């Protein structure tokens, strides 16, 4: 029985895992990894597959069994992070948005960022006014189907490509007009570069929203962008802190705190779950280090608490933005070939292909990505009559200027849209039986309408059953009832108190043990100090010295001589 158990353990240690990574062009890269393979090994494999050198902007995202999103930590083992049984499924995504994406060194990097921003536009993470939406959609058309051709593109051709789930005929006509008249002759590379330049100027560029609630229980979205920390509530950007103004990020349980150096501001928000709050904190720590620091040697391990025996510790591992740009400037090679694919029109199911397979791999296959964005995208300038988010503050409320209004003398809230900010893929699905995925695929092939839930499943990577909540980018619904997220429950408070007491007890015992060892070393030394001499003259010390310390010292000396003899013989 024991031998069978041990042999099974040995086989388990030697097991290889299958890992599938969904790329930004909706192909899937499948590989086999060893049990102890680190995240960096898998990431390097993918970058080699894509022929990608400017890889520091990208990361690998996965969803755990509790529907909580995570970024794969490259220095750690993949198997230990996944918390689920293989085969593993992950996604390649842009983790750090370039401050100026159009200025990236290589076309392959710009193309991948282009695909990511298209996703953001489709899924409601990137909001813009109607004129900007028409221009962005026209650039997508030009990049992927080329110049307007009356023989290939009949009247109303732009309406066959479902850029947004619901939009007016006026917007469709505007998209077609721009494509016909303003973009003629532009190559795919030029159109993608212009798309990036346009998207970069939007208030929600680079936003990866985390659903939270403020101290009043009002829903909000927190995000980290290349320019700073952003809070979106309703249709307004209610807070914007530049990275040099953010001094500290903390979390405890579901509570997340942001400290700003101007006017000693503290913003407090509540995440749906402790796991979501920890993920939010980690994202903040990484983004702050990447965009704020001058060099990676300045990166320090960050603690979520002021007490060293309490809270989580985390350190960003990677290069910072300035180093990445300096390294990119040194790239000298022939640009890698990019095989772009055209758009696939579909009226029954709003789907758009997200580009080509960047290279041919036998075990890659294609998936359609379903599009979703809010109807009637609109953006205004500033509003001085908006209701601000209530925050725990040590001073007056701090609402900095917009990035695009840095030279404006007036401060206020930026209204980003007429509609409330509510990205569609913020709802993560609930897993059901495997045949649900097959049913969804068969419905798509047969031309049946795709549900919003199935659309969200495509991004999250798990099948769906039932309805999700309204705010769940990081795993669960944030609408758990009135006041449910504004404070911890009594049971959670008791558990936190007990855990804190246990930590304090363990730290105290550890300190006492260290002090005892230090006292023994000092008393057994030759130091001529009065209180040590008094201790040496006590009967208890003499008994300890002759019965325990001397035999233990002889035993260690014997072992050291034995090890030294072995080394000499070798």
Automatic annotation (TrEMBL):
Membrane-crossing residue ranges in chain numbering? 497-522
- Major place of residence: other
Query: What's any one GO cellular component for it?
Result: adherens junction
InterPro entries tied to this protein: Band_41_domain, FA, FERM/acyl-CoA-bd_prot_sf, FERM_2, FERM_central, FERM_CS, FERM_domain, FERM_N
Tell where it localizes: Cell junction, Adherens junction
* One protein family per Pfam: FERM_C
Residue ranges constituting the FERM domain according to the UniProt record: 17-295
Tell me if Membrane is a UniProt keyword of this record.
yes
Q: Which Gene3D superfamilies match?
A: 1.20.80.10, Phosphatidylinositol 3-kinase Catalytic Subunit, Chain A, domain 1 (3.10.20.90), Pleckstrin-homology domain (PH domain)/Phosphotyrosine-binding domain (PTB) (2.30.29.30)
Asked whether the keyword rRNA processing is assigned, the reply is no
Instruction: Spell out the residue ranges making up region: Disordered.
Output: 452-485
| Alphabetized SUPFAM superfamilies for the sequence | PH domain-like, Second domain of FERM, Ubiquitin-like
Provide the alphabetized UniProt keywords. Cell junction, Membrane, Phosphoprotein, Transmembrane, Transmembrane helix
**Which Gene Ontology BP terms does the record give?**
actomyosin structure organization
Q: Which PANTHER family match?
A: 4.1 G PROTEIN (PTHR23280), FERM DOMAIN-CONTAINING PROTEIN 5 (PTHR23280:SF5)
Q: What does this protein do?
A: May be involved in regulation of cell migration. May regulate cell-matrix interactions via its interaction with ITGB5 and modifying ITGB5 cytoplasmic tail interactions such as with FERMT2 and TLN1. May regulate ROCK1 kinase activity possibly involved in regulation of actin stress fiber formation.
Query: What is the recorded name of this protein?
Result: FERM domain-containing protein 5
Q: What is the lineage of its organism?
A: Eukaryota, Metazoa, Chordata, Craniata, Vertebrata
Q: Which gene codes for it?
A: frmd5a
């Amino acid at each position: 029985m024991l031998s069978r158990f041990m042999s099974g353990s040995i086989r388990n240690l030697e097991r290889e895992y299958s890992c599938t990574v969904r790329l930004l062009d909706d192909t899937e890269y499948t590989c086999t990894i060893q049990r102890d393979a680190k995240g960096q090994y898998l990431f390097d494999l993918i970058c080699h597959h894509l022929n990608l050198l400017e890889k520091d902007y990208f990361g690998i995202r996965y969803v755990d069994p509790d529907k909580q999103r995570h970024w794969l930590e490259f220095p750690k083992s993949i198997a230990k992070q996944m918390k689920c049984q293989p085969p593993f499924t992950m996604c390649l995504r842009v983790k750090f948005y370039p401050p100026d994406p159009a200025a990236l060194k290589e076309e392959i990097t710009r193309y991948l960022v282009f695909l990511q921003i298209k996703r953001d536009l489709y899924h409601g993470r990137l909001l813009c006014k109607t004129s900007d939406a028409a221009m962005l959609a026209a650039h997508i058309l030009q990049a992927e189907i080329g110049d307007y051709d009356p023989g290939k593109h009949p009247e109303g051709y732009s309406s066959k490509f479902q850029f947004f789930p619901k939009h007016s005929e006026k917007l469709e006509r505007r998209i077609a007009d721009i494509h016909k008249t303003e973009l003629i002759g532009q190559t795919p590379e030029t159109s993608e570069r212009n798309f990036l330049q346009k998207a970069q100027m939007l208030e929600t560029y680079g936003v990866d929203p985390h659903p939270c609630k403020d101290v009043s229980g009002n829903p909000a979205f927190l995000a980290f962008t290349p320019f700073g920390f952003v809070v979106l509530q309703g249709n307004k950007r209610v807070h914007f802190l530049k990275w040099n103004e953010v001094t500290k990020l903390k979390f405890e349980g579901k509570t997340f705190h942001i400290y700003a150096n101007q006017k000693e501001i503290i913003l407090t928000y509540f995440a749906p779950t402790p796991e979501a709050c920890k993920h939010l904190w980690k994202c903040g720590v990484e983004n702050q280090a990447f965009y704020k620091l001058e060099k990676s040697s300045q990166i320090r391990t960050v603690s979520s608490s002021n007490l060293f025996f309490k809270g989580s510790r985390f350190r960003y591992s990677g290069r910072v933005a300035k180093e990445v740009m300096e390294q990119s400037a040194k790239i000298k090679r022939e640009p890698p070939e990019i095989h772009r694919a055209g758009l696939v029109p579909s009226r029954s199911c709003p789907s758009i292909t997200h580009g080509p397979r960047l290279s041919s791999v036998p075990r890659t296959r294609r998936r359609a990505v379903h599009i979703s964005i809010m109807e009637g995208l609109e953006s205004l300038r500033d509003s001085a009559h908006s209701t601000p988010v209530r925050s725990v503050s040590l001073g007056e409320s701090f609402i900095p200027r917009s990035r695009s209004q840095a030279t404006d003398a007036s401060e206020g809230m930026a209204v980003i849209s007429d509609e409330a900010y509510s990205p569609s893929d913020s709802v993560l699905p609930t897993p059901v039986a495997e045949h649900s995925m097959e049913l969804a695929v068969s419905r798509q092939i047969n031309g049946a309408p795709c549900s919003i839930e199935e659309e969200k499943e495509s991004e999250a990577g798990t099948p769906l059953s039932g309805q999700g909540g309204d705010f769940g980018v990081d795993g669960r619904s944030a609408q758990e009832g009135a006041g449910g997220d504004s404070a911890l429950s009594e049971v959670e408070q008791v558990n936190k108190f007990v855990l804190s007491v246990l930590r304090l007890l363990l730290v105290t015992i550890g300190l006492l043990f260290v002090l005892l060892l230090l006292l023994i070393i000092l008393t057994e030394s030759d130091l001529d100090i009065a209180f040590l001499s008094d201790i040496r003259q006590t009967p208890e010390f003499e008994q300890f010295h002759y019965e325990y310390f001397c035999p233990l010292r002889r035993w260690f000396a014997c072992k050291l001589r034995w090890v030294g003899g072995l080394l000499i013989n070798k």
